[in-house]
Amino acid sequence: MLGLTVLLSGCQGLASSPFGTPQEDPLASAPPIERGLDAEGLSTLLSAEMAGQRGDYRRATLGYLAMAERYRAPQLAERGTLAARFSNDVLLLEQAVSTWHELDPAAEAPLRLLSGLALQRGDWPTALDRRLTLVEQGLHGELALFAELALESGTDPLPLRERLREHLERAGADAHPHRYDAVLAMAILEAATGQRQQAERRLDLLARDHSELPALWLTRAQLALEADSPRQAREAARRGLEISPGDPRFLLLMAQAELMLGNVAAAEEHTSTLLDEHVGNQELRISLARLYLEDNHLDAARRLLLPLVSSDEPPPAAFYLMGLIAEEEGEIDNALLYYRQVSPGSDFLRARLRAAQMLIEDDRLLDARAFLRIERLRHESRFSELVALEVELLDEAGLHAEANALLNRELSRTPNDEPLLYLRAMRAWEQGDIDAMERDLGRIIETNPDNASALNALGYTLADLNQEERLDEARELIERAHALEPGSPAIMDSLGWVYYRQGDPERALPWLERAYASMPDQEIAAHLAEVLWALGRHEDARRVVEQTLLRYDEHPLIDELLERIPELAPTSSTVNETTP
């Protein structure tokens, strides 16, 4: 729902991705360097400029940041940020943006970038704080959209609601030109945390003074749909259309409400209006077809898709959806034809997976395997992925011996296929055959010494085995991987873990903290908590464990850690805290 709404609105939403498409000179738009410099400063900046022109954006960024801190010049930090955006290193970018923000706390751009970076690593409270800082400076924080995205991500809305409540209760908040945006965000979060009546009252009060706001009726319609109140949603969307005639978001909401009421013909009228206003928009037509499919209105979805599959350049997603429709109607062979026509792209593997699963569910395992074999011949560039797909399906069917035989057979034909060697190595690790895993990873590294994934996997495994005589080897492998991919959280986690295994928790800690800040998964959390505990920072360790227990429904690595260190367990009242 949210993705389609954003598509129709054409808005940019939250801060754009910090990575853009490289231009011929990505620093051409950067602010000029105007201050006088001493010899060292001039040399450093010239080196940074030359590094940027050569595409060595990491070195360029570090040069600019060093001089920005030395001269307290936000313009140099901004230039460093521009270079970092092209480095594909999230941590380097965050370092650059943080320096820029420190040197110019009132600047809008670094705050928006910091908010976006916080979202990338799943730190929604920090992202909200950054946006509220923008609001407090009189700028638009896009808080309502932020709240919707937070709910879409599955994050816990309660801390966000309480932080936003503090903001609204602060003296002077009433005078803010965009206060309505914070009120809408608050209503969204209240509804999501069970305070629907309070949310409705808040929206009623807002409607008294700001009934002309399309965003008000948009929020009311969305909340009504989520509450399974399609008539209220339809009325709110109708009011929105009166204020903003032709607004595609309200037309979409009207269509959704009519579908919930069972009025398919009325819904199609609204979607037809949308398509008339967006002629040639294939993505919109596909998104609307998905909407009808979600409610199992197959004929309506088919009517939207048929013009696409018969066009000169049919989008792959249209064939995939037509396959789903045919499969739902029991037309297996027809569905197979559609799935086969999905060309390489985002839906390619999903279509082959669905086709093979469909055949297996119809007791046609041999046909499924023949289909995947033919697809490997038709699409040589996706050979490894299709083999891996068949291995996965065989494993799911309990045919592990057949899966091993397939993998061994294909590797006998293509002995240096790195993805398949890596897959076999990981299967060996799961089966406890470390020697076999090491052979396959070693072959990858021998053929391609710059395969960071293989270097890290082997190094981490050796570190995790904690065999003292091989820890130096493990560290060397991981350090080589880090030199190749310095921004990888997984590799930073491995570095921290091998340093800890070598008895140096203080050296391990900053690597694990950086890895956790960028990718707070439970494996990194378990490592970080254990190292914090070893350093005597017991409350910090418990806090990491508590956050992970709340974030994941299943947490076997944390459970294993708690078995070894029971004192790490947070209090049950904290972990079982319920949302009001």
Automatic annotation (TrEMBL):
The keyword Phosphoprotein does not apply. PROSITE patterns: TPR. TPR repeats lie at residues 489-522. SMART domains: TPR. InterPro entries: TPR-like_helical_dom_sf, TPR_rpt. PANTHER family: CELL DIVISION CYCLE 16,23,27, CELL DIVISION CYCLE PROTEIN 27 HOMOLOG. This is Tetratricopeptide repeat protein. It comes from Billgrantia tianxiuensis. Pfam families: TPR_16, TPR_19. Keywords: TPR repeat.
